[in-house]
Amino acid sequence: MTDMYTEKVMDHFRNPRNIGEIKDPDGFGKVGNPVCGDVMAIYIKVKNEKIADIKFKTYGCTAAIATSSVLTEMVKGKTIDEALKITRDDVANELGGLPAIKMHCSNLAADALREAIKDYKNKKKK
Amino acid sequence: MKRIYMDYAASTPVDKEVLKEMMPYFDKYYGNASSIHSFGREAFDAVEKARERVASLINANSEEIVFTSGGTESDNLGVKGVAFLNKNKIGSKGYNIITSAIEHPAVLETCKYLEKQGFNVKYLPVDKYGFVKPDDLEKAISKDTFLITIMFANNEIGTIEPMEEIGRIAKKHDVLFHTDGVQAVCKTPVDVNKLNIDLLSISSHKIYGPKGAGALFIRKGVKLQTLAHGGGHEKGFRSSTYNTPGIVGLGKACELGKARLKKDAEHLRSLRDNLIKKVLKIEESYLNGHPEKRLSNNAHFRFTAIEGESLNLMLDDKGVAAATGSACSSKKLQASHVLLAIGLNPAEAHGSLRLSLGRMSTKEDVEYAAGILPGIVQNLRKMSPLWNR
Question: Which site from B27, B225, B259, B304 is most exposed, i.e. has the minimal number of CB atoms within 10 Å?
Fold first, then answer.
């Protein structure tokens, strides 16, 4: 863990990947709270139990934006089961670490993805 | 890349004239100002000259100035120093100390500490502009009250408090009046006599002096418990070997600040008003604080649906250095207590931006910052799930 943002965090912050929304997503997840300063929304399209497409929208600090962005890269093309295994720590590690203070509040991307997958599974049951 | 500094409320560059005057006191006149020999006397004379200059800025007498390490120490000495001499008031029914909800942490945390020691502290609320209501103050005073500590001007939103009325009320009830003047001196006229101020904190690095130097004005006759015991410097108020270069720098900064007060204020006000006018053209952007009764160099905004740390780093990427009241940029992860106290909700407070100008700011700086801001705000809103316009 570091005190400052890593180069990779700054890269994802400056050039976020997969920003936006997906119309008619197969799964949608939103976590966080404006009171805390972080809200993340994740949209997924699933084909053959694999994440075919993923987009995000994030309100929050640099870490919140970077973790959302890097997560979308990490899970694109992965199976649902593989994606579900990704933890907050994995996301932080992928970025070369996050400042300790940001580990809990701003590292919500994995949670948002899990919500989106839950939504997908619920829709499938119907 | 072009870099533009718009965080003068956080710190300022040392003025070249200040630096020039400080330099010989590092290696040429290095004596201890308390020593009796010629080396010591050179340093002593410089310290006393600086004392006169600081006093002159606020219309005090030089024997009423005590040098410190900066604003935080001055606030601590002023507030705790008075409180520790009034320990007999611990446990009393009325308020012992009256302060405001929007003080700088140097005062706020000091008051919270004193509360833990048993003192009864009242934190006066403020209105939507950040003004303390003099009526509230007067109502809170009782025979148990020994200190009022209310800042001259707020460091975040720039609101200038009604000093004259507060001073009048303090005098009427015979209560000591301390004010954190760190942001106010050299930006707005400060006359401790006219305003009935008993204790006033000054920081050097906010007024183009060096870091690590400050002063506390202590009105003649006011008694304080020292916090730094030792060799008995500064009439026993604050022991520590004189930081001669720092003190010389603070003195020069005060002299320059006094001479340039009017010119600086006019320059800053014109830049500030232009900046505010331009930035408020952004959709759903708002000014925090009062449009007129604010520091000449302070512009404080908030933007719906974006977060201040991101905004700050994007500005930084484009070369503009600013500040925010967002929780994400604070070590405590809490939204600014000042913004919450003026009635903003946490989400509104997170989207705040402080641009503070200074003596070296130019019209071009303002044009540049105001020019890049709309694009950055738009960019962040495009990413934000809270923005659906």
Answer: B27
In terms of Cβ atoms closer than 10 Å to its own Cβ (0-12, 13-18, 19+), residue B235 is exposed
Judging contacts by C-beta atoms under 8 Å, the chain A residues touching residue B305 are: 59
Residue A58's DSSP bridge partners are A40
Task: List active site positions of A.
Answer: 36, 105
Return the CATH number at A36. 3.90.1010.10
Summarize pLDDT for B82-132 with one digit per residue, the tens: 999 999 999 999 999 999 999 999 999 999 999 999 999 999 999 999 999
The answer to the question of residue A126 being in a domain is no
Q: Is A14 exposed, middle or buried (0-12, 13-18, 19+ CB in 10 A)?
A: middle
Q: Quick one: B364 exposed, middle or buried, by C-beta within 10 A (0-12, 13-18, 19+)?
A: exposed
pTM here is: 0.94
Residues in chain B closer than 8 A to A19 (CB atoms): 382-383
What is the domain partition of chain B in residue ranges? 4-11+261-383
- Beta partners for A79? A50
- Alpha carbon distance, N-terminus to C-terminus of chain B: 33
Class for domain B4-11+261-383, per CATH? alpha beta
Listing DSSP states for B129-165 in one string gives T-PBPHHHHHHH--TT--EEE--SB-TTT-BBP-HHH
Which residue from A minimizes the CA distance to B331? A101
Per-chain mean pLDDT for chain B: 96
Strand partners, B302: B286, B352
- The answer to whether B328 is a known catalytic residue is yes
CB contact under 8 A, A35 and B347: yes
Residues of A in contact with B346 (CB under 8 A): 34-37
Q: B87-113: string of b/e by CB count within 10 Å (b at 16+)? A: eebeebeebbbbbbbbbbebbbebbee
CA neighbor of B355 nearest in space, from B311, B317, B387 = B311
- Mean pLDDT computed over B326-354: 86
